[in-house]
Amino acid sequence: MESIRFRLRFFLVALVVIVALGTFGFMIIEGLPLLDAFYFSIVTIATVGYGDVHATTPAGKGLTILLIVLGVGTFLGVVANATEMMLNRRENQARLKKINMLIGIFFSEVGTKLLSDFSDSDPGLPQIRKELVVTGRWTDQDFLRVSKMLKSHRYEVDIGKLSLEGMKDFLLRKRAFLVGLLESPMLLEHEAFTELLRAVFHLVEELGFREDVLRLPDSDRAHLSGDARRAYNHMVHQWLDYMRYLKEHYPYLFSLAMRTNPFDQEASPVVEEVQKATYPTM
User: Fold this and answer.
1) Are residues 48 and 179 in the same domain?
2) 17 and 136 share a domain?
3) Is residue 278 pLDDT above 80, yes or no?
4) What pTM was estimated for this model as a whole?
5) Would you say residue 51 has pLDDT above 70?
6) Same domain flag for 169 and 254
7) CA separation (Å) from 117 to 65, 105, 107, 158, 194?
8) For residues 186 and 95, is the Cβ–Cβ distance under 8 A?
9) Is the residue at 267 inside a domain?
10) Over the stretch 147-174, which tens digit does the pLDDT of each residue have?
11) Whole-angstrom Cα Rg for the chain
12) Is there a domain that residue 116 lies in?
């Protein structure tokens, strides 16, 4: 995409220069007023033919030929690169839509449950928990503000507050699902989410290799705490980005995501009467 932007800027600058030179050239050689000279340059480059204005001198005709040779190719370069950029943007939007669909499936199947468990075991979360209760009134500025705040949060997982046996059983049941996500070629373009999946899958492997997670030495529990903290850190940021995407593109999915917010201890999927005006439908 960057190379297309560079080519488009190059051709645009070249086109402006050629039009300017052609305009001033016709003003001097043909004695045309500014508007007529500019009009003559444009219709020459666009190859739409002439009407009431045309070159009458040999020098003017030579300038016209030069303008056609240089200008037409430049004009076509602008059109071709602008079209390619538009098509690439549409393709990227379609790809982004599919990637976010996979991210949504991840949070529905695994992420929301893990975030709820990790956040409940984070000793520092009570200080910022209310900042993570996303509502329908949030703007882009609210998402940016909370995103900046989360970068300075010290993510911790008190392993003693986690049900390691329950988490192990849950993640092992979801192992095939996680492998399927990792095999998706589209996710290779989303580095942050790929790192999240790797962190979660590593936690699955660590827990899976331990036969009895209830009898672990403190050193091993500290190791697992670090693995959980890594996955927790990645998930929080991806969850916030995904909530922002849903609010902008899918209000009905955003409604459910708000009502199942893993950071909101009062969250409930049940729509109460007072919520009817808050949660949009489509």
Assistant:
1) no
2) no
3) no
4) 0.70
5) no
6) yes
7) 73, 18, 13, 10, 21
8) yes
9) yes
10) 999 999 999 999 999 999 999 999 999 9
11) 30
12) no
